[in-house]
Design a protein that fits this description.
Elements (H helix, E strand, L loop, with lengths): L5 E5 L4 E6 L3 E7 L6 E7 L2 E5 L2 H6 L5 E2 L4 E3 L5 E8 L4 E2 L7 H8 L4 H4 L7 H10 L12 E3 L3 E3 L5 E3 L9 E6 L3 E6 L16 E7 L14 H13 L6
Antiparallel strand pairs: 1-15, 2-14, 3-13, 3-15, 4-5, 4-10, 4-14, 6-9, 7-8, 8-13, 11-12
Length: 240
């Protein structure tokens, strides 16, 4: 791995946001096993442009995300690509826990009672981060749940594969656009763990290698080549 220029451990059941410049990448590591890392992406130059789950899935003919997959905006551009992954399955359809679903599964919890050990929910965590940039509930999108895998039965009912990710497993996102990243480490909405899960995730920032014509993600699906063309047009004249 390239030299790490910034590292931060995201505690379990917490939230964070930051802007990352294109040409950088982040390796995320599940520190304990069974982590869930929910993420949303926005264009910091135009906050109306955000991650689009349906386009990401349908243009790459997939239900899961793994190495080679790109994460698309609703303008047909590529925010980032999964350039390394030893987990193999990240889901992007189940969304977040809410205050009601968290209370139903693990009981009610308030800051006045539990302080920093309160049982936060994913939806409200995203709202807190969105508000920092003048955004709100109307700007929410379907998020990715990294480290998590869902399976279906014969009737189409979905359930979470608990502990899909083991301690020490990781994936890397290369950012191909300047991106505003929102994330939280609250439990997956389909988790049936008896105790409220608090799984920390490590983030390590490094410089990415320049995109080349034989790049794995670029050539993973034909649509990805079009997405990168859209990126090229967006940054036309800004690259040396």
């Amino acid at each position: 791995m390239a030299e790490v220029f910034y590292s931060f451990d995201v505690p379990g059941a917490s939230h964070w946001s930051f802007k990352i410049r294109r040409g950088n990448q982040i390796r995320f590591t599940d520190l304990e096993g069974g982590a869930n890392l929910a993420m949303l992406f926005y264009n910091p130059e135009n906050l109306l442009e955000k991650y689009n789950a349906p386009d990401t899935l349908k243009c790459q003919h997939t239900f899961k995300l793994t190495k080679g997959n790109c994460l698309y905006s609703d303008m047909g551009r590529i925010f980032c690509a999964i350039v390394d992954d030893d987990i193999g399955w990240h889901e992007t359809v189940c969304g977040n826990t809410t205050k009601a679903s968290t209370a139903q599964q693990w009981g009610k919890s308030s800051y006045q009672q539990a302080r920093n050990d309160r049982q936060q929910n994913g939806y409200d965590c995203f709202l807190v981060e969105l508000a920092k940039y003048g955004l709100g509930a109307k700007d929410m999108a379907a998020n990715v749940n990294f480290f998590s895998k869902v399976k279906t039965d014969a009737e189409g009912n979905m359930s979470l594969s608990e502990h899909n990710s083991k301690a020490g497993q990781h994936f890397t996102l290369r950012f191909d656009m300047d991106t505003l990243v929102m994330l939280h480490t609250c439990p997956h909405p389909l988790s049936e763990q008896p105790a409220f899960p608090r799984k920390a995730v490590r983030s390590e920032f490094t410089k990415a290698e320049a995109l080349s014509s034989d790049d794995f993600c670029l050539n993973f699906r034909p649509e990805n080549q079009r997405g990168y063309k859209n990126n090229q047009l967006y940054y036309l004249g800004l690259d040396a």
